[in-house]
Amino acid sequence: MLDFTGYKVVVTGGSRGIGRATALAFAGKGAAVSICARGESSLRQTETELSRQSGKVHAAICDLADAQAIQRYIAEAAAALGGIDVLINNATGFSDETVDAWKDCLAVDVMAAVRAADAALPHLARSGHASIINISSISGLRASARTPAYAAAKAALIQYTTSQALVLAAKAIRVNCIAPGSVEFPGGYWESCKTTDPDLYKATLDSIPFGRYGRAEEIANVAIFLASPLASWITGQTVVADGGQLLTG
Questions:
Q1: Among the listed residues 34, 32, 35, the one whose alpha carbon sits nearest the alpha carbon of residue 8
Q2: Is 79 part of any domain?
Q3: Which of 7, 73, 150, 213 is catalytic?
Q4: How many CA atoms lie within 13 A of 192 on its CB side?
Q5: Which long-range contacts (CB under 8 A, 24 or more apart) does 123-128 make?
Q6: Residue 203 domain-assigned?
Q7: Residue 41 to residues 45, 47, 184: CA-CA distances in angstroms?
Q8: 57: part of which helix (H) or strand (E)?
Q9: Identified catalytic residue from 136, 139, 144, 228
Q10: Tens digits of per-residue pLDDT, 64-81?
């Protein structure tokens, strides 16, 4: 029931970190996969990795803050794959907390997910096993003095997931959300914090009961489950994957 042969999967922000791990996980289980990202270098590298696992791969540069660019990308991805069965909204506009952070997070974390789902809807509606998975964060489930814009955007994405699930249930499209805790991966925020802000890195590590940062592959595993027939009666839910980090407050 975890065989995705014949599935067409689209992952936004799929060139590195959680997006990359998720795209590779689906490709490894037989799916045709499309990814997009702003940076060409990491995009092409991940495209090459995907090509080793999947017979059908599509990759495109896309600024997910641009509404028209999203429409073009989804149309191209659907054409390249032959449809869309699963849409993973993974991209984030996370940046240092400034006034611009609000604009970036709302544009990418929230509105890109709304626009991508809207563009993919005609294709998802024709699928017999359609699923949308939004990648949020535990920051969206609690107050954040350090990253209020990011937390607010991720909270909005969680709420949108529930409403979207209710609206799309009549079309047999499931919509769920994953709220990862602190995940460390090459080139990611927490890896850079090791050197740029070691005190924050250690304080965050100390807040995780499992005593380590999460791995991108562990979040990808949750996405695999939620998109699979094993989760056929699950919709409108947010799955926290954080090694107990949220339990500590």
A1: 32
A2: yes
A3: 150
A4: 3
A5: 123/74, 123/78, 123/83, 123/84, 124/84, 124/85, 124/87, 124/168, 124/171, 124/173, 125/171, 125/173, 126/83, 127/83, 127/84, 127/85, 127/173, 128/172
A6: no
A7: 6, 10, 20
A8: strand 57-61
A9: 136
A10: 999 999 999 999 999 999
pLDDT at 78: 98
Mean pLDDT of the chain, nearest integer: 95
The reply to whether 163 belongs to the active site is no
Q: Is 195 within the bounds of a domain?
A: no
Domain at 147, CATH number? 3.40.50.720
Active site residue 137: yes
Phi/psi of residue 33, each to 5°? -130, 140
User: In the annotation, is 73 catalytic?
Assistant: no
Number of domains in the chain: 1
Q: Rg (Cα) of the chain, in Å, rounded?
A: 17
Catalytic residue among 131, 137, 182, 228: 137
pTM (2 d.p.): 0.96
Tens of pLDDT, residue by residue over 186-206, are: 988 899 999 999 999 999 999
Inform me whether the pLDDT recorded for 96 exceeds 70. no
Backbone angles phi, psi at 243, to 5 degrees: 60, 25
Measured between alpha carbons, how far is 119 from 79 in angstroms, rounded to an integer?
13
In a domain, 151, yes or no: yes
Residue 185 — left, alpha, or beta (φ > 0 → left; ψ -120 to 50 → alpha)? beta
Domain that holds residue 238: 8-184+215-244
Among the listed residues 8, 144, 154, 182, the single catalytic one is 154
